[in-house]
Amino acid sequence: SRSINLAVIPGDGIGQEVVAEGLKVLSAVLPQDVKLETKEYDFGAKRYHATGETLTDADLDALKKHDAILLGAIGDPGVPSGVLERGFLLKLRFAFDHHVNLRPSKLLPGVATPLAGEPQIDFVVVREGTEGPYTGNGGTIRKGTEHEVATEVSVNTAFGVERVVRDAFARAQARPRKKLALIHKNNVLTFAGHLWTNIFNKVAEEFPEVTTEYMHVDAATIYLVTQPERFDVIVTDNLFGDIITDLAAAVSGGIGVAASGNINPAGEFPSMFEPVHGSAPDIAGQGKADPTATVLSVALLLRHLGYEAEAARIDEAVSADLSERTGKPARSTSEIGDALAVRVAG
Amino acid sequence: SRSINLAVIPGDGIGQEVVAEGLKVLSAVLPQDVKLETKEYDFGAKRYHATGETLTDADLDALKKHDAILLGAIGDPGVPSGVLERGFLLKLRFAFDHHVNLRPSKLLPGVATPLAGEPQIDFVVVREGTEGPYTGNGGTIRKGTEHEVATEVSVNTAFGVERVVRDAFARAQARPRKKLALIHKNNVLTFAGHLWTNIFNKVAEEFPEVTTEYMHVDAATIYLVTQPERFDVIVTDNLFGDIITDLAAAVSGGIGVAASGNINPAGEFPSMFEPVHGSAPDIAGQGKADPTATVLSVALLLRHLGYEAEAARIDEAVSADLSERTGKPARSTSEIGDALAVRVAG
Ligand SMILES: CC(C)[C@H](C(=O)O)[C@@H](O)C(=O)O
Ligand SMILES: CC(C)[C@H](C(=O)O)[C@@H](O)C(=O)O
């Protein structure tokens, strides 16, 4: 009999509320024969304030035993900027080698976009997750003086770039339009840019059916608001991916519906799924948060674990729910979760 | 009697055409008593192909003698990516210490935006121009092998950050709304992020009337499409500034109307003014390019040299011209230039 052993990290702020709904929908969608086990972990600001810990070796050992991880949101204004990001979120991505950060953008019918007209948006960004300017390489000298120098080192390896580029080509190959865009800034960041571009061009030879293009990151932000239909699959560096996926989320319905996966494709470590939005402390605890991005992250999680039909049922339920929202009064977090749970079960 | 000794670099592609119109409007707007001298330089792809040179020491010595520089566009698909960018554009910015890269974004009446509704957009980005990931620090080992490692080093100094932050505060102080946003990614790029944030907070104490906020670069891209009216002055790092100013241009009428200045505020070296758009080889030589961004760059140039009234006349002429475009047939590059020249003279 099948089973899913899930680590659940609700985290801070609205993380708690949205994860509860994600689990509700997950339970509702799973067939009877699949045994769902969940274990909750208390990472985030509360644990940090209480113990000074963000993520210990013992924590990593415990998390390793799960099939996948569902995360709500980590972050709190009471914690200095960078502590939870570097100490928990990035530490986990690096420890579990989450090198494929998958962020789909699809503007669903009935969903508002800040763009004029009726843009067709349906693409997925494959963001590298373990290299680039995110490695924490760099440092500071003469800190706090007028002679301070601070550096950040973007580290890019052929190994790291090739595996994520291959992943993106395979995804593009599997989609009807079969298009892949590399986004970088190879005219300025020439060392990293040449590495990315050369590997991209080399791997392209193995995927003759995939149409490729290269675009500078600055130009990409223009296309994302003027011609978002242009994109099918995008592969890009860690930092550029961070930036353009927030923009992509904004134009395709907002971060309220943007899901993401931090994936270790070979399955050496559990992959982690989370909404793109943060902990939104201003609305936490009020039942106002939209759990849709978390529910869509559950769909990505199911797809990753091989439950394609169940993932598709969630996607359809979300589409239907969103398309019926216009003109109706706002629902609470749990009302939306209930409605989605009913739909996926039905 | 007054005089302007201008270096003119038409450059590649549409650069030639748009610069001609910029000069036309400049001549038309200047009072009789101002003597305008111009000297044209042939930098760009043609010179590179003919001689292999991009910008020599002798060129820099020649350019130094001018009061300011007007540039059209540099870039050609026949030149490997990075050669003209690093060898000319960035070399010049670094050699002439153009540390304030000024990029205003204003959505003028009658101008189309990809955003829905009627957004109010009127802000200016102060982008650092001589540090960050643009210094060319970094390198490659084991090039072309499966063990290649390429690094890019973002270099940030207290000296470099403080001067551009001060410039931005002074600009915010001089504007009616007196708002300044720092955009960075200080939760991930903690070395550089702390330097920027600490200096920003320190300088803020000297400008008590300026309202400040901090925003991560990813979140900033969301606000730029959902709440662009939120921004008044933005100060940011070289790379983030590159990215968000293209997005800013896209939402506020497109890069056809986006002007920029590469400024050395102390006047040790001539400042350079240029449209944000590139050389657009696909439409070059056809009289299809819109010279408006170049004409607005001429206004920035005049303002920088102290010709405020003339700069304002150009801004007004452009506003008037843009507001009367809707429904009219497209005009050629020189027809738009002629119309603007008539308006500023009138
Ligand atoms: C919180 C931060 C570390 C993170 C990132 O920059 O990757 C977030 O912005 C994201 O995109 O998941
Ligand atoms: C062409 C390139 C070097 C340049 C930059 O990245 O600064 C351009 O994109 C710009 O914004 O002026």
TrEMBL record, chains A, B:
Residues where NAD(+) binds: 278-290
The protein's Enzyme Commission number: 1.1.1.85
Sequence ranges assigned to domain Isopropylmalate dehydrogenase-like in this UniProt record: 5-340
GO MF annotations, alphabetized: 3-isopropylmalate dehydrogenase activity
Residues under site feature: Important for catalysis: 134, 185
Cofactors that this protein relies on: Mg(2+); Mn(2+)
Location relative to the cell: Cytoplasm
Catalytic activity: (2R,3S)-3-isopropylmalate + NAD(+) = 4-methyl-2-oxopentanoate + CO2 + NADH
Residues given in the record as substrate binding sites: 93, 103, 127, 218
Keyword Oxidoreductase set for record: yes
Annotated metabolic or biological route of this protein: Amino-acid biosynthesis; L-leucine biosynthesis; L-leucine from 3-methyl-2-oxobutanoate: step 3/4
Pfam family, one: Iso_dh
Alphabetical UniProt keywords: Amino-acid biosynthesis, Branched-chain amino acid biosynthesis, Cytoplasm, Leucine biosynthesis, Magnesium, Manganese, Metal-binding, NAD, Oxidoreductase
Residues given in the record as Mg(2+) binding sites: 218, 242, 246
Binding note for cofactor: Binds 1 Mg(2+) or Mn(2+) ion per subunit.
PANTHER family found in the cross-reference section: D-MALATE DEHYDROGENASE [DECARBOXYLATING]
Record-stated family: Belongs to the isocitrate and isopropylmalate dehydrogenases family. LeuB type 2 subfamily.
Function (record text): Catalyzes the oxidation of 3-carboxy-2-hydroxy-4-methylpentanoate (3-isopropylmalate) to 3-carboxy-4-methyl-2-oxopentanoate. The product decarboxylates to 4-methyl-2 oxopentanoate.
Subunit structure: Homodimer.
Name listed for the protein in its UniProt record: 3-isopropylmalate dehydrogenase
